[in-house]
Amino acid sequence: MPDLLASALDGSSVAVDASATATPIGAPTLSWRDGEILRDGVAHRILAGSIHYFRVHPDLWEDRLRRLAAMGANTVDTYVAWNFHERVEGDVRFDGWRDIERFIRLAGEVGLDVFLRPSPYICAEWSNGGIPSWLSGRVAALRTSDDGFLAAVDAWYDRLIPRLVPLQASHGGPIVAIQIENEYGSFGSDADYLAHLRDGLRRRGMVEMLTTADGITGDMIEHGSVAGALATFTFGTGVARAVELRREGDALMCSELWGGWFDHWGERHHVRSAASAGGTIEELLTAGGSVSLYMAHGGTNFGLWNGANHDQVLQPTVTSYDSDAPIGEDGTLTEKFHALRALFAPFHAGELPPVPGAPRRQGAATTPLEPRASLLGLIASLPVAGDVSPRPRTFEELGAEDGLVAYEADVSFPADATLTVDGLHDRAVVFLDERRLGVLERDGETSLALPADGGMGRLTILVESLGRINYGPYTGEGKGIMRGVMIGRRLVNGWTHRVVPQEVPALPTAATDATDATDGVAIASLDVAEPLDAWLAFPGGAKGMVWLNGFLLGRYWKVGPQETLYAPAPLWKAGRNEIVVLDTDVLGVTVEIREEPSFGETEEFIGS
What we know:
Elements: E1 30-33, E2 36-39, E3 42-43, E4 47-51, H1 61-70, E5 75-79, H2 82-85, H3 100-110, E6 113-117, H4 133-136, H5 147-164, E7 175-182, H6 191-203, E8 209-214, H7 218-224, E9 230-235, H8 239-245, E10 253-258, E11 269-271, H9 274-286, E12 290-297, E13 307-311, E14 313-316, H10 335-344, E15 365-368, E16 370-373, H11 375-380, H12 395-398, E17 404-413, E18 418-425, E19 427-432, E20 435-441, E21 447-449, E22 455-464, E23 468-469, E24 480-487, E25 490-491, E26 496-500, E27 520-528, E28 534-537, E29 543-548, E30 551-557, E31 565-567, E32 575-583, E33 590-594, E34 602-604
Parallel strand pairs: 4-5, 4-12, 5-6, 6-7, 7-8, 8-9, 9-10, 10-12, 11-34, 13-23
Antiparallel strand pairs: 1-2, 2-3, 13-14, 15-33, 16-27, 17-22, 17-26, 18-21, 18-24, 19-20, 19-22, 24-25, 27-32, 28-31, 28-33, 29-30, 29-32
Helix pairs in contact: 1-3, 5-6, 9-10
């Protein structure tokens, strides 16, 4: 590896051996000096907003980018979610929804710069913080100089970065800034790791301005910063503190100004008023700072991509990532949008693009759900994964990314026995033969009573991953049954496993079992005149997953706060549409199209 010359803190580019990259190193478009960001030597403000391509249907990318430009932003900020592109090790995809190059080119065509955040870890309330589960399943020391972790990162960057190099502004593209790592100062203290990422970006041909992003404490800035990169901040409020912590010569920038907040299941929907968010942004701009609003348009945790936090207990994130953003989940422009447009307008030499019209929605409708298979019936239809195992295997050992895995074993038990799942991650529905015994939860009850008179039977434990942890020391934690299952003090051995695929379940033409269970799989049909956005609700349903025309929209859960699922227009077709629901607890009897979203009871978020 050629030696690298550490760059100066004024934002000058790193010199590298020209043989190390196919693209000659040029001057970055943005730099910083004496407390200012400069664009080709002229003072410049970054007015950015976050839109994640992986949370927006690709047919809607251009619409959302145009709405961002109409808000007065001059830059779009997006993470690159590694696990979205490499779900299976070695199978790296950049097509369709994963065509990051197309998203970047569209931004440029709309007139936006791109602030790219491709670090291996993104947080973002996204599953595992963007790190593939196949990697976290074998490497314990994530986000460090661990040889196994760095080898995987380097292999990923060897596939990703060459696609991005030609899209830099120095090559005529829109990328003007690249983030090295994300809030590393609140996680670790491995300076060599940060240097490895920085040098790897430069060596592969990334010449534009490099940044880091951390919270507003001295400790976070110290451990999250690296020479040659602009140290930026993340906060909801706290401009004065950021000014105090800014390193000498650094420009003032908030890479994540939290204008809203995300939601966990079982909590309230977070909102932040236009006056509150706008007031903090105005304070930052008055102080001479640059800003990226997180989120400008939140989008949706489609499929099972939602992450989770862990603060004493697991806190899984809901399907919606609306985040009370100025551009709503379906593109609706809110009061916050118009307030920010007024704030950003004076920083533009000309008129802002016109405000786009409101998105069109389908009208209200109701259709019945027809049960097709009980939960046990669905499980029985699935193939066994691998051989019989003495102990239950984790999701990672089974190659199960997320969702549901059924664990089965033949058991015998004495009278008044108790069943315990040791290391349950995260929620389980337990059956003995055809009898539903109950639900166990990771941070709740992990034991239940077996039939009082004793006996024997087939034990089935359907375990659901509620979301992989995306922030803090538990990032990368495994899913499934992590240790074992006990009857009394005795371990149960002899397990078979069935992985429920994330694809729409294969359904019989009519109900196949006559159990009294109210859980399982059901289907509904909806006729629409034309494909338009819709909000779907499942009254009476308890805890489920929903597919629209074969696409997994996400999850619903009666604990709230989210009550409706966003179903964007590109997923519909004129005429007959098929909706499949898998509910582990209680199936509802209808599916509703509602004309407005319902995110649940609200509470005000201010931030820190």
